[in-house]
Amino acid sequence: MTKLPTWFFATAAIFALCGMVWGIQMSATHDHTLSPAHGHLNLIGFVSMSVFGSYYALTPKAAESPLAAVHFVLTVATVVVLTPGIAMAITSQGETLAQVGSVLAVVSMAVFVFTILRHGVGSVDSQPIQGHEVQPQPAE
User: Fold this and answer.
1) Using the 8-state DSSP alphabet, how is residue 124 labeled?
2) What's the CA gap between 140 and 137, in Å, rounded?
3) Residue 56 in contact with residue 5, Cβ under 8 Å?
4) Quick count: other Cβ atoms within 10 Å of Cβ 102?
5) Cα(34)–Cα(89) distance, rounded to whole angstroms?
6) Distances 129 to 57, 58, 60, 126, 133 between C-alpha atoms, Å
7) Which one-letter DSSP state was computed for residue 59?
């Protein structure tokens, strides 16, 4: 099995840790101005990357595809560009980075959609273990 799901999960955990620290900082300073950037860090950086990692763990054929590595890089780039881009837009330092990050997010999700449609979900080779098939139980 490829290590791609591990990379998605490990990176998601790092982004979650960063989001938690940032959340504590916002709470301690009572300044929640950058909450939208914080939210995108958590949503794309942790939630989406965890969902992607789960998919690739469940669908090893997709994880072995070269496009899967591209998907990982695109998703990391999305978080690294979009999060500070939103912070910059909020603080009136320009919206270009947020716009580029938004396009990266759409491309990353489009790659995910394409991957799902191409490979399906789950292992094609998965079969019940002989003698351990689940039998329906009669209603009582």
Assistant:
1) T
2) 9
3) yes
4) 17
5) 10
6) 20, 17, 19, 9, 7
7) -
pLDDT digits (tens, 9 = 90+) for 15-44: 999 999 999 999 999 999 999 999 999 999
58 Cα distance to chain centroid:
15
Q: In whole angstroms, give the CA distance from residue 100 to residue 92.
A: 16
* End-to-end CA separation in angstroms for the chain: 43
SS3 30: coil
In degrees and rounded to multiples of 5, residue 114 shows phi and psi of -60, -45
Q: Is the pLDDT reported for residue 132 higher than 90?
A: no
Considering all CA atoms of the chain, what is the largest pairwise distance in Å, rounded to the nearest integer?
A: 67
The count of other CB atoms within 10 Å of the CB of residue 46 is 21
DSSP string, 5-69: HHHHHHHHHHHHHHHHHHHHHHHHHT--TTHHHHHHIIIIIIIIHHHHHHHHHH-HHHHTSHHHH
CA distance 73 to 4: 11
Compute the distance between CA of residue 88 and CA of residue 80 in angstroms, rounded to an integer: 13
Helix or strand (DSSP H, E) at 65: none
Indicate the pTM of the whole model.
0.85
